[in-house]
Amino acid sequence: MAVQKQPVATEKFREMDKKRWLVRYLVLASIAVILGIKLYLLIYVVDFTVGFYSFLTSFVLFNIFFLSWVKYRDPFTRVKDVIIPEDRKPLVSIIVPVKNEEGNIRNCVQSCLNSSYTNKEVIIVNDGSTDGTTAILDEMRKEVGPGPKLQIIHLSKSVGKKVAIEAGSQIAKGEIYVMMDSDCDLASDAVENAVKIFYTDRRIGAVTGHARVRGAAEGNTLLKIEDVWFDGQFRMLKGMETSFSSLTCCSGALSIYRREAVAQYIH
């Protein structure tokens, strides 16, 4: 009987997955050791107030890691096989406020247009940019052509992110709002995956994405440190909050809302 070899990509993915779990084991073990040391110092060595505060902060950190590791399950894993009929896909409005991002805005807008989710409109709100952002947006508008696929609002002066989002939402027609920062790129399947979560559970009003640093794998040490920080913020802290079906806030990098849940707070 012939034995098939696993594809190289699959083997690489499994190896990365093993490393990811190994890192989590080591982190938990390290924090547990630190907790033990701090407990010993609290009882036998240091001032009680200082020792108790030190122990408490480490205990909270340990629980964040532990709960996100043991209890958190990405909600997409429950709905990844769901297929939404084309005629039942809700309209999604992708709203991106931007100011002075001439180096990033083209990639950002293009990633929104390239999203695999078909029933969408992209709304870019130019918040009084003074660099080349305005010219780039006008050029992209001509490239895309007329129609609702890409809409651009040029504000005469800077009014801030909150008001810029409000301006975009005033012309948005979608049942789902996608809001993202203009220095970020949208993964091609991000909107599709999020809509499946909303589609299968009407109780969910907001979803926030996992953000990673672009080029961290090939970048310098600072980029790698930043990427680890993002991983902790999203997969750990937000994962822990999600395990209790509650988020304290959604990330500016990518936040997705059911319109009826946030409309009254935007306007």
Strand content: 5-15%
Largest sheet: number of strands, sense, barrel closure: 6 strands, mixed
- What class do helices, strands and sheet pairing give? alpha/beta
Number of helices: 8
- CATH C-level name of the largest domain: Alpha Beta
- Can you give the helix content as a percent range? 40-55%
The CATH homologous superfamily of the largest domain is called: Spore Coat Polysaccharide Biosynthesis Protein SpsA, Chain A
Which sequence of strands runs across the widest sheet? 3-2-1-4-6-5
Number of domains: 2
CATH architecture of the largest domain: Alpha-Beta Complex
Number of strands: 6
Unreliable runs: 1-13
Task: Return the string of H and E elements.
Answer: HHEHEHEHEHEHEH
In CATH terms, what is the fold-level topology of the largest domain?
A: Spore Coat Polysaccharide Biosynthesis Protein SpsA, Chain A
What radius of gyration results from the CA coordinates?
A: 22 Å
Distance between the termini: 66 Å
Q: How would you state the average pLDDT, rounded?
A: 83
What coarse outline follows from CA principal-axis ratios? Answer: elongated
